[in-house]
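Annex B. Sample input.
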Amino acid sequence: MASSLMLLQLLPFLCLHWLIFIASTSSNEIPKQPYIVYMGSSSKSNLIIQNGEDVEIAKLNHMQLLSSIIPSEESERLSLIHHYKHAFKGFSAILTDSEASALSGHDHVVSVFPDPVLQLHTTRSWDFLAAAAKPAKNTWFNHKYHKAASDIIIGVIDTGIWPESPSFNDQGMGEIPSRWKGVCMESPDFKKSHCNRKLIGARHYSRASTNKDNSGSSRDPLGHGTHTASTAAGTYVSNASYFGLAGGTARGGSPFSRIASYKVCKEGGCSGAAILQAIDDAIHDGVYIISISIGLSNSEADYMNGPIAIGALHAQQRGVVVICSAGNDGPYPFTVSNTAPWLFTVAASTIDRDFQSTVLLGNGKAIKTYPLAYGKAIAVNSTLLSEARSCRLGSIDPKKVAGKILVCIHTDPIDTRGRKIAGAENVEAQGLIFINDDEKIWPTERGILPYAEVGKVAGFRVIKYINSNKNPTATILPTVTIPRHRPAPVVAYFSSRGPGLPTENILKPDVAAPGVAVLAAIVPRPDRPGGIPAGEKPATYALRSGTSMACPHVTGAAAFIKSVRRKWTYSMIKSALMTTATVYDNTGTPLTNSSGNNANPHEMGAGEINPLKALNPGLVFKTTIKDYLRFLCYYGYSKKNIRSMTNTTFNCPKKSSAKLISNINYPSISKSKLDRQGAIRTVKKTVTNVGSPNATYISMVNAPSGLAVKVFPQKLTFVEGIIKLSFRASFFGKEASSGYNYGSITWSDDRHSVRMMFAVDVE
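Annex B, continued. Sample output.
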């Protein structure tokens, strides 16, 4: 019977032989690359583990499909690099463009696209977030709540993990939750004993290549995955610091949650096919939340050609939260990544702690000074003046800089500060002054080399001093921590901005969280840039910046909220964090960006997360699977593909248009192309009462001058038995300024303020 079933399942693929035309050109001369073949939802409606026969049948089906397009003389390519079999179906393999094109036309295939290479995008930070709750509460510091999170499993898809870090100590942790079905993969440098009751699982994936490579390890060689995992759920570690800076007790947002590590990145990037495999495995393994601090360098061109978007849609269908970084391509608009509405997208902001390095120009004091050397003036030759200006490796004459403090101007975003520090050390410089023309200053690892970073105003003074003195000298004083810094938070310069693509009718990013100078666990490296201060061991904690660091803050916050509000769904947690977010800094004025201007929702989303306040949001916007499916309809996907992706008989609404995307029950509103001469545009939203059963909420609109925004009804009254009510918001832009207009609609009772941000593009 099983053999007959297998044959029937193979028949749809056998007919593909007759559809393929093999060109006369030698197949060895045709370019080949890894492709992802996405085939929609798994036939399993839940997470019942497939038995071995099910898995083998699926694998055989995919191999048969592959063999139908790959010439027999190239049998070495008949191999699945990755095989998706739990929450969704598909595989990745080495294909030519024509083979990929042929597969894309198959009835059982939703999309075929090249395997993309994606890029990687704390002591005080959690205290800073807790301090934003007014009045102050102790909930976050109550171990009762944190221990309730011990069955919350967080999957971190990143560069792996360093299991020896104190942040992953399992002291005080109970038994591993029974829902966990994952593994701890072994390798020569990673044993099963490295996993424990805290770090309960670790997987790694080989990089897609024409040469099959099963080697690998779950160990983190870069430190990025270790840093993000410890930020999300690291246990309490006292006396943590980066060589004395940012000292205190390090902990994650949910210190008693479990961690499962999925290594998909190596130096040079992250395979999209491996990310898709990791999401599929994480869903099967039993995680509650997936944290992904990875993204494309620009916005997705198509939701069904993005591995994170595809995998997260299936995770959402099974109630698994997927939280992602927004990207580090700011401050330019249209740079935000991970924009699908079912993703929780996080921008980066500062906290109330800064670091200061003082530069003293000239002599006249007892402090030892060193000569200054401007990179442009000591180039190896005249053809490298531009590179030498920014101190690019290999462009500076070592003989002219030895024993001096090197001065560089930032002009090359690809050449990182870490590389410049290492380069200055290699040419025996006595220090490095880094002039950041764009004022995008944030702390970096610097080791023993004296280092200072200044903005363009101070930088101009340094260059003017060099040019006006025959023997310019300077001293760089040791870096010190500046506590209680104001204003904070501020949207980080590098944080990617909206509007999002491919549709502007979803407001992205969703929220902001600490992502500048975040102290968390790293890989101790004796060969680190700049060396190690005398008498010190390699650092086990370090300061890192990026939306990669902001993402796990929201991950930890979501795990914390889930541990307290056990019955809340993913969309309820997301809504609570968005509608209670902070839009004021610690001076009591509106949040600003790095230029000092008021931050808008395309920079900060709904604002800075306030996890304690999110425990009691009053009202939530429940975004359902049907909302996401309608979104796909409105966006333009066919009914056939949507059914394949969801394994349902879902029908699109009769009217489907991109203009209707704003109507899905999302906790924010974005409207593109509002014609000032056109009709009033209206959206409908539904809120669910999670506060007092008897409550009345009054709406208040904060809109820019000229944009007419009205809410109907203006009052929502909840009584026993009624927990859901709807309202409509209308927008009319006849008198509004051209371009994006930002504002908010806030529902308030005597205890709660539920703020929904909006962005309306008037043309």
